[in-house]
Specification:
Helix content is 35%, strand content 28%. It is of the alpha/beta class. It folds into two domains: 21-228, Rossmann fold, CATH 3.40.50.300; 236-311, Alpha-Beta Plaits (2-Layer Sandwich), CATH 3.30.70. The strands form three sheets. It has a six-stranded mixed β-sheet, sandwiched between helices. The chain has a four-stranded antiparallel β-sheet with strand order 2-1-4-5, covered by helices on one side. It has a four-stranded antiparallel β-sheet with strand order 12-13-11-14. Helix 5 (126-135) runs antiparallel to helix 6 (149-161). The longest helix is centred in the middle third of the chain and has 16 residues, at 179-194. The chain is elongated. Bound molecules: adenosine-5'-triphosphate. Adenosine-5'-triphosphate binds at residues 30, 33, 35, 53, 55-61. GO terms for molecular function: ATP binding. Pfam families: ABC_tran. It is a peripheral membrane protein.
Length: 313
């Protein structure tokens, strides 16, 4: 190697890796209904992103766009650089999808369903399927029509993982799974991301999201309204304060604080919720009226996400 080559090696930075999932300005309409309204979302390798939002906010539509089942009205969605609409075949090889309601042919056994899906997924690994089935206590010889709701969900998980996909798209994946299987499922997702894969987890179970996700994206009416690590979102959560005062305090003094909500004045007790930035101003106002007793707590992730749902209604 020449000196010049060496200097090239020492100064060059590793090329930034293509994101596992990228949505840029993705919009999708169904007639007059705007299901997605300019969604930007990136998943990096090793990441689990919790994707939460009220019913009808656009989570499943996002997943269907990523699976190449829906064409965005505008914007672009890619998986590891492949266009989800124009190069959906490559995308299907890379993606494992667990739906909330697996629509599997009731006449087939687990193994038969797997074999049917082989071409779509660019091949499956029977050894991997057996391993995942064993860990979920699932018999792949079961006929879909004879299987319980939870057993069909386990089958959907095996189908999603059997081709060792890079990216998992999980839409309410633990619906119907018993707690032991839920835990095993989360272990499987953790192993997937530890090995450099990634997962988008759509869920209404916020405790599950908080435990599993590295980052949370909150969707409301087709738009991203909040995004951050669970700790960052919690840090932005309102403080709920309740105080007993020595002298009465006019309701307006609390109501007029920036971002104040749930304001109540009852006798010598006052209470309200304020964003973290307004806490010092609230404390100063309370102090002017002589604080005799004080309760103060910050909302947890679940309470603050629910507030985002309500705020943007
Ligand atoms: N095929 C369709 N035709 C017409 N409207 C649709 C279609 N699919 C979704 N929508 C509408 O798009 C919006 C977003 O729906 P979507 O299913 O993506 O929401 P979601 O966040 O997954 O909801 P949920 O939490 O209830 O599963 C809703 O208003 C829904 O009625």
């Amino acid at each position: 190697m020449t000196t010049m080559d060496q200097s090239r090696v020492s100064t060059s930075r590793p090329a930034p890796r293509t994101p596992d999932v990228s949505l840029r300005g993705v919009a999708r309409r169904f007639g007059d209904v705007v299901a997605l309204d300019g969604v930007d979302l990136t998943l990096g390798p090793g990441e689990v992103v919790g994707f939460v939002g009220p019913n009808g906010s656009g989570k499943t539509t996002t997943v269907r766009v990523l699976l190449g089942l829906l064409r965005p009205t505008s914007g672009r969605a890619t998986v590891r650089g492949w266009d989800c609409w124009q190069q959906s075949q490559q995308v299907h090889h890379l993606v494992g999808y667990v739906p909330a309601e697996p629509g599997l042919d009731p006449r087939l056994t687990g193994w038969q369903v797997m074999r049917r899906s082989r071409r779509l997924r660019g091949g499956t690994d029977d050894g991997r399927a057996e391993e995942v089935a064993r860990r979920l206590d699932l018999d792949l010889g079961v006929r879909v029509g004879d299987a319980s709701r939870g057993t069909r969900q386990k089958l959907a998980v095996v189908l999603a993982l059997a081709h060792r996909p890079a990216v998992l798209l999980l839409d309410e994946p633990t619906t119907g799974l018993d707690p032991v299987s839920q835990r095993e499922f989360h272990r499987l997702v953790g192993e997937q991301t530890a090995a450099g894969g990634s997962a988008l987890l759509c869920s209404h179970v916020l405790s599950e999201v908080e435990q599993t996700a590295d980052r949370v994206v909150v969707l409301r009416a087709g738009q991203v309204v909040a995004e951050g690590t669970p700790a960052q979102l919690r840090a932005r959560s309102p403080f709920r304060v309740r105080a007993r005062l020595g002298t009465s305090m006019p309701y307006e003094l609390l109501r007029d604080l920036p971002g104040a909500a749930d304001v109540r004045v009852e006798g010598d007790w006052v209470q309200c919720a304020v964003p973290p930035a307004a806490l010092p101003a609230l404390c100063a106002r309370l102090a002017e009226h002589g604080v005799l007793d004080l309760e103060c707590g910050q909302d947890d992730l679940e309470q603050s996400v629910l507030a985002w749902y309500r705020e943007h209604r």
